[in-house]
Design goal:
eight-stranded antiparallel beta sheet; about 30% strand; single chain; about 375 residues; alpha+beta
Length: about 375
């Protein structure tokens, strides 16, 4: 089925789904409403997170809901019960750039696997895959949180997204947005085609990955319908697996700030300097014990060896003293026990001798 053949149905359905589009998206400070929002820390580089061998890392990402499990297959995002919605968000922002995610979508009716780019003023670029739809992926975008229409979502075919890993990539420049599946361009949005640029995402965005149950029975009927029906938690758990994430920032600097309250591309100010995220990512890994030993000077190695030797001798001496003390205490205790035994033996022998002589015989008068 071609993406255009889905448009009439999709247009009607998405018109009803205002709560869905922003269900997992939020901002703590909207620069369109105030000039006091803090600047956005820049990535200012490119980096690949291989989640089959390591984690996202707390220095550049935050778990905003739930928790992840890391396995040789990648990072697992699991919905096992009502309320589960594991989500992770980058601490850094990109201003123009590319985000590539290798992902296996979660199964389960009503379960949504999502890749989201989001700005503080609610510019947004989405990938969403529904657990009840194993043939298509949805692409979407919003500008400044504008929800006056819901006809921007378009679905594209994917071969078995829940059975295998696929590459979902978003490329974002000042002039256009592009969505790719497994390296092939499936959608292009030009700046002028997004309501004359008014709805075109154009402010610094962070990256969010997560899975959630849009089909939860407590959600409104439109959301549940869009998600493909009510989620049956008894048939779970439902797991989205992310194998790797590559993020590239097309801008360079320490941080991004809003120069005014328009949120336009040209109003964004780039502060020069070193990116905190880039510094964290470029930190060398902790040295092993052998590596630390090799960095010591010969004199320091002699000192360490001497200290270790002295410590060993001290331990040996203390052990010997303890053993000797225990042996001495043991001899005393044995001597006391032996004396007590000899005393009891003598008393028993005397008792037997008396009995043999009839010393304890009972007389007839006492009867």
């Amino acid at each position: 089925m071609s993406p255009t053949s889905l448009l009439p149905t999709l247009s009607l359905l998405t018109t009803l789904l205002a709560p869905v589009a922003l269900s997992q998206n939020f901002t703590s400070c909207n620069p369109l409403n105030t000039t006091t929002c803090p600047p956005n820390p820049a990535l200012s580089t490119n980096h690949t997170y291989d989640l089959t061998a390591s984690s996202f890392g707390s220095s550049t990402w935050n778990n905003t809901a739930g928790f992840l499990t890391y396995t040789p297959s990648g990072a697992e995002f699991t919905v096992a019960a009502r309320g589960d919605a594991p989500t992770i968000q980058s601490q850094f922002y990109i201003f123009g750039g590319e985000v590539e995610v290798w992902m296996r979508a979660a199964e389960g009716q009503g379960v949504v696997s999502s890749i989201v780019l989001e700005s503080d003023d609610l510019d947004e670029v989405d990938w969403e895959l529904l657990g009840g739809n194993n043939t298509h992926a949805q692409t979407n975008y919003f500008g400044k949180g504008n929800t006056t229409s819901y006809d921007r979502a378009i679905w594209y075919p994917v071969k078995d997204p829940q059975g295998g890993f696929h590459n979902y990539t978003t490329r974002w420049t000042k002039e256009k947005l592009e969505w790719f599946i497994d390296g092939a361009t499936v959608r292009t949005l030009k700046y002028e085609d997004a309501n004359g640029g008014k709805n075109f995402p154009q402010s610094p965005m962070n990256v969010r990955l997560g899975v959630w149950a849009a089909g939860d029975k407590e959600n409104n009927n439109y959301t549940v319908e869009w998600a493909g029906g009510e989620t049956d938690y008894d048939k779970g758990p439902y797991t989205m697996v992310v194998q790797s994430v590559r993020v590239t920032d097309f801008s360079e600097g320490k941080e991004y700030s809003y120069g005014d309250m328009t949120g336009s591309w040209d109003s964004i100010e780039i502060k020069p300097g070193n990116s905190t995220a880039e510094e964290e990512l470029n930190k060398p890994p902790p040295m092993t014990a052998s590596q630390r030993w090799n960095t010591l000077s010969p004199g320091a190695k002699v000192g360490v060896a001497s200290a270790v030797g002295a410590s060993c001798l001290a331990l040996i001496f203390l052990g010997a003293v303890y053993c000797a003390r225990q042996r001495k205490m043991g001899r005393k205790e044995r001597a006391v026990a032996d004396a007590e035994f000899e005393k009891e033996t003598r008393e028993l022998m005397a008792y037997r001798a008396t009995m043999a002589k009839g010393g304890f015989a009972v007389s007839s008068r006492e009867v």
